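dude i think i finally got it to work??
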Amino acid sequence: MADFTRFDDIFSFDPGYAYDAGTNEEIVFNRRSLGGKLFFDRLLELLHIDHATQRYPPRSHVDLRKLCEKIVNSAWPEHHKQSLLYYILLDCQVDYSQAAETFVRQFHLPEKYATFMKGLWLMDRMEFEAALDHLTQPSLLPTFAEEILLTLATHARDNNDPSLALAYYHTISPVLTSLRPLEALFSVLCQASVTEAFHFSRRQAESTQKHLLERLISYVLSNTRGEERAAKGMELVNLRMNEQEERWFEEYLGTGKGKMLHGAKDTMTIRRIGTGKFREAIADDKGPSGRKVDGVNWEALRLGIADGLTSQDIEELWAAR
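look at this
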């Protein structure tokens, strides 16, 4: 009877199997691209198997045997051990396309474990869209949710495409307990919609709200150009803020770190006009004068907020400048 703890039974298709150089190089490259840690590395850590980056990928047949022995001799439940072995067998698909699925059937690995492991394997292969098809299945409990979101957010930043990170977040609704994934998600929201990012910040603790509002302002003024900067700038100056948020906005751009951002004074002036603070806007006689700044037409921004003011007020203000 086959035994999943015996290497020759796991690799019955080729008891002398070893990873080829190309597979090893791809895994090492992906680990580096993913910030130095694969999801498989995290799994090995959970099983208290140390030196993950030295053990995986296995450089030889002997190393592969030692890695499998470490897994099957760990103190974790059988399904957890089988899940990691299934992950390893997914690496063999180029040469043995049915090896992993045969293992699932032979040793009755529950479908939800196989689905989750296939998702993590695809994450480690940087096939993120395919990974989400597995990791967002309703049968799965969110596991490594912050790490997955952080990985997808990094991908969103590098490829200017927030869709996958947002799809995962909205589907799973993970609880974010640490600042780094929260900030990463917020950056993705800023990419997608200034308004959505702003409302997300409002749902956080007050101390975090201030921090995120400042990040939102900084993103709009530092990470956008041309038409995108104009559109997001218009969204920013038209946000409906409460008194506290208005103070944070003014402090950040007027006296805080944000005052050094390109367009900080112009943004503050446009916001003052849009909220009816005409005296404060006029008092600063170095505000925008319909000129272009870094590709942004401030005259277009002015007209964009005109719906909140009378045309006479707008024209008098800008004529006076």
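Residues 139 and 187 are 29 Å apart (CA to CA).
im so relieved honestly
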